[in-house]
What does this fold into?
Amino acid sequence: MTKHIVRRGYLHFSLNAEQTMGMPAVRAHPTPHRRWTTAQVRDLIDESRHWPRYELIGGELIVTPSPGYPHQIAVTEFWKAIDEYALAQQVGIALTSPSDLELKVGTITQPDLFVVPKAEFSDSDATPKWSDISALVLAVEIISPSSVRTDRITKRDFYLDAGVAEYWIVDLDARLVERWIPSRETPDLARTSIEWLPAGAASGLTINLTEVFDVIWAKHRSLFK
It folds into this structure.
């Protein structure tokens, strides 16, 4: 069991999450001779494919390989749970990556799932662009073995510093969600259910995590019943 330092304390996590597929895990670390820019990273992004995923935080290029299918099922299931609610409550729109978010100047991030607040859109026929988005109501990452440190430390600190109202880390292996908010030094750990009440919503959303995790891990088996 590996020990990961998080703000003012230790939490113990299993690293036996779903395996990634495709290219091996790669994380490019900055050196004194190479500090990446958004222009350089966008040159790497090939819009004809979704993977690998390129992100830029603090001058560091982060390359995420293609995930396994449980990861993708998880993205879909959480998106389904959040999207209808966000629209009904006029909170915003739930989207999934690939994306090109520059929440802070000189950065590029692509959360697995995120909610863009209504205030970021205009009431016009103009086609929205990624460059129009400067804030998120929620960012969600589904961790995999290659992204543990990035999701739990690098991205956590980035999203909270960028003013994202909530950041969720979904651990499929442990069947839990770490819920981070800027005003707290430690996360809430949700195992059976998680409640979300974003600013401006008339009522909250409750996601039954037990059911969602059951679906994620058993979805392919339903084909053979």
Q: What stands out?
A: Helices lie at 38-44, 69-88, 148-161, 209-218. The first strand starts at residue 2 and ends at 6.
